[in-house]
Automatic annotation (TrEMBL):
Cofactors (names): FAD
Annotated ranges, domain FAD-binding FR-type: 19-129
Top-level taxonomic group: Eukaryota
Single GO molecular function: metal ion binding
Matching Gene3D superfamilies: Nucleotide-binding domain of ferredoxin-NADP reductase (FNR) module, Translation factors
Function: Catalytic subunit of the phagocyte NADPH oxidase complex that mediates the transfer of electrons from cytosolic NADPH to O2 to produce the superoxide anion (O2(-)). In the activated complex, electrons are first transferred from NADPH to flavin adenine dinucleotide (FAD) and subsequently transferred via two heme molecules to molecular oxygen, producing superoxide through an outer-sphere reaction.
Cellular location(s): Cell membrane
Membrane topology, record value: Multi-pass membrane protein
Matches recorded under SUPFAM superfamilies: Ferredoxin reductase-like, C-terminal NADP-linked domain, Riboflavin synthase domain-like
Catalytic reactions on record: NADPH + 2 O2 = 2 superoxide + NADP(+) + H(+)
Signal peptide feature range: none
Key words, A-Z: Cell membrane, Electron transport, FAD, Flavoprotein, Glycoprotein, Heme, Ion channel, Ion transport, Iron, Isopeptide bond, Membrane, Metal-binding, NADP, Oxidoreductase, Phosphoprotein, Transmembrane, Transmembrane helix, Transport, Ubl conjugation, Voltage-gated channel
The name this protein goes by in its record: NADPH oxidase 2
């Protein structure tokens, strides 16, 4: 037995040593941004840090806890000179981080007073393959929208730098959430992308649909009253928010009809139930003919 155990144990110990060494490297918090609904954005720098879209890191703040490591998806793009995470304050550890960063104070916080942060990573996810397709469907549910902040930023940087060499030609983005207010920072990102694409006369590059899955009677009345306004009353986007859940069969059939003979990447960050639905639709809407349309399903669950 020991012959079978020694090899894996040696590799495991090597991996732990590498992770320990990476976690000891100096990390500098360059900026802390407070977003609505108690969400903070930490912008950081670390020597030798290289990332790809959709990856995640483990974060430790010794001022809050010397033992706890928490995973966060990177929301910055590889083209930016920093890496960032968005942290929503929903528990004891995130509350401690919020206070340690001075976000509970009204006055300006000096950079040298910010807490020390240890970072382990980055670690890969399925979203890294998004640039391998000409057409992609990106589906984020709730907090699962965070990897696509990195993806959409990177796509835009690449598009502005050299659109002719960018293989990706069309993005269909779906965001399902019960409450968009908790992710107003992401709606701000979409607003920025929407405005920039209109300036470049390429509004068709990104098609997005936001589905609100939870609302009450008073909200519904407010939506009806303001439905005719140019911009959506919830997100401020020109694309109006939809209510309920998408009919995935219709969505897949429509996209398949618009891109015959294509390999379409389907990327999900969301719950397991939604993953099963999208996987079945990807299989049923892919043609047996190798020259026909094929949906390639990729997922990460939470």
């Amino acid at each position: 037995t020991w012959k079978w155990v020694v090899g894996p144990m040696f590799l495991y110990l090597c991996e732990r040593l590498v992770r320990f060494w990476r976690s000891q490297q100096k990390v500098v918090i360059t900026k802390v941004v407070i977003h609505p609904f108690k969400t903070i954005e930490l912008q950081m720098m670390k020597k030798g840090f290289k990332m790809e879209v959709g990856q995640y890191i483990f974060v430790k703040c010794p001022a809050v806890s010397k033992l706890e490591w928490h995973p966060f998806t990177l929301t910055s793009a590889p083209e930016e000179d920093y890496f960032s995470i968005h942290v929503r304050i929903v528990g004891d550890w995130t509350e401690g981080l919020f206070n340690a960063c001075g976000c509970d104070k009204q006055e300006f916080q000096e950079a040298w007073k910010l807490p020390k942060i240890a970072v382990d990573g980055p670690f890969g996810t399925a979203s890294e393959d998004v640039f391998s397709y000409e057409t992609v469907m990106l589906v984020g549910a709730g907090i699962g929208v965070t990897p696509f902040a990195s993806v959409l930023k990177s796509v835009w940087y690449k598009y502005c730098h050299d659109a002719t060499n960018l293989k990706l030609k069309k993005i269909y983005f779906y965001w399902l959430c019960r409450d968009t207010h908790a992710f107003e920072w992401f709606a701000d990102l979409l607003q920025s992308l929407e405005a920039q694409m209109q300036e470049r006369n390429n509004a068709e590059f990104l098609s997005y649909n936001i589905y609100l899955t939870g609302w009450d009677e008073s909200q519904a009345t407010h939506f009806v009253v303001h439905h005719e306004e140019e911009k959506d009353v919830i997100t401020g986007l020109k694309q109006k928010t939809l209510y309920g859940r998408p009919n995935w069969e219709n969505e897949f059939k429509t996209i398949a009809g618009q891109h015959p003979g294509s390999r379409i990447g389907v990327f999900l960050c969301g719950p397991e139930g939604l993953a099963d639905t999208l996987n079945k639709q990807s299989i049923s809407n892919s043609e047996a003919d190798p020259r026909g349309v094929h949906f390639i399903f990729n997922k990460e669950n939470f």
